[in-house]
Write a structure and sequence with these properties.
The structure is a single chain. The protein is of the alpha/beta class. About 35% of the residues lie in helices and about 20% in strands. The protein has 13 helices and eleven strands. The strands form three sheets. The protein has a five-stranded mixed β-sheet with strand order 1-7-4-2-3, sandwiched between helices. A hairpin with a 4-residue loop joins strand 10 and strand 11.
């Protein structure tokens, strides 16, 4: 298998883009990545998206976007893995380039979510859960996460206020990200006063949806001359039961553990070697569970990293350095590519006031559903 590197990146601001269509948002990110890469064409297009058929009334996004951006005759396909669709599209493209089947790929994560009423989007998001045993019983996606969070608090003795540092950190970092949706500093006190959505989850526990797109271009590593060269050092995917109640331990993200372990082994590193970690903080409970599954904390102690300020830019494991899902925003099918773009920005040294000093190794972890599909990618900067 060939070593693969990132040649170009692009993204749009996450917002309610009433004046832009799905194709315009995706095209903006794709053209930005092509410009950054210095290319006009690629061999294939892989699109990560979850909701286009349910919210936008549009399927066949591979051809939809290849037509719009002028990649006629090229291979093009849409990948769907719920909120992990972006990560799944990247892994598919990675395997195609690494195998030698193609020499370049554009990976586009895109989602337009705000053209439908909130209740319709909530119903669409619930399709990431088990239709028979979760959704049919009346539980929403936020409700599932609330049940997990409540059990976690009961099991390990944490209070709701103990989760505040995850959101406070994300918002503080998003202030310096022009592509983030929320540019508002919050405090632990404001976190606690926020309106409850599904107890114990409140508004500031949860990531906002939005319209947005991000894109990366990958090629064989030997074709990248820019320094530092960012290579894909590790890539892995794992699954768990789609319904939370079917898991041996509903408070442990086994798919995150398995995919991160495989990615660490492939990269020849351990969690302690990571300089930055873009985790999937769709809800604050998921941030804690991700840190535990990836080796940064013992089971039930992920919350401690936030309380001890170890997740900040200068901490032991900087997370959500551009705002995370919580403050950058969570256009679900695009999120996995936003995470990758942000890791690349860190390894290039392009993050300004949220730059992690000396960042050489970064990880992005993209979660689909309530932990059912999880993809982990590790990147290294070479020759800086």
């Amino acid at each position: 298998m060939r070593q693969v590197a990132i040649l170009g990146i692009g993204q749009t601001k996450i917002d309610e883009h009433w004046d832009k269509s799905l194709r315009e948002i995706g095209g903006e990110a794709a053209f930005s990545a092509l410009q950054d890469a210095g290319l006009e064409k690629v061999d294939a297009l892989f699109v990560g998206n979850m909701l286009s058929s349910l919210v936008d009334g549009q399927n066949q996004l591979g051809t939809f976007f290849s037509d719009w951006i002028g990649l006629w005759k090229q291979e093009a396909v849409k990948m769907e893995a719920a909120c992990a669709s972006g990560g799944a599209a990247f892994r598919a493209a990675l395997m195609a380039v690494a195998s030698g089947d193609i020499d370049s790929a554009l990976v586009l994560g895109v989602e337009k979510m705000t053209d439908k009423a909130g209740r319709d989007v909530t119903s669409a998001l619930a399709t990431a859960a088990d239709a028979d045993y979760e959704v049919e019983q009346g539980v929403s996606f936020v409700g599932i996460n609330a049940l997990v969070m409540r059990r976690y608090m009961h099991e390990f003795g944490w209070k709701h206020a103990d989760f505040a540092p995850f959101s406070v950190n994300a918002h503080a970092n998003a202030l310096h990200n022009p592509y983030a949706r929320l540019h508002e500093k919050i405090t632990a006190e404001k976190f606690e006063r926020s309106s409850v959505i599904a107890s114990p989850i409140n508004l500031l526990d949860a990531s906002p949806i939005g319209d947005g797109a991000a894109a990366v271009i990958i090629v064989p590593a030997e074709k990248v001359a820019r320094k530092p060269r960012i290579v894909v050092a590790g890539s892995a995917s794992a699954t768990d039961t789609i319904a939370v109640h079917g898991r041996k331990d509903p408070l442990f993200l086994n798919a995150a553990y398995l995919s991160s372990k495989r990615a660490y082994d492939m990269a020849g590193i351990s969690f302690a070697d990571l300089d930055v970690f873009e985790l999937h903080d769709a809800f604050s409970i998921m941030a804690a569970l991700s840190l535990e599954a990836c080796g940064f904390a013992e089971r039930g102690q992920g919350v401690r990293l936030g309380l001890d300020n170890e997740i900040s830019i200068t901490g032991r494991v900087p997370v959500c350095t551009r705002g995370g899902l919580k403050a950058r925003g969570h256009p679900v099918g695009a999120t996995g590519i936003y995470q990758i773009v942000e890791v690349i920005q860190q390894l290039r040294g392009e993050c300004g006031l949220t730059q992690v000093d000396g960042a050489k190794i970064g990880m992005a972890q993209n979660i689909g559903g309530s932990g059912a599909t999880i993809l982990t990618h590790i990147f290294k900067a070479e020759g800086s």
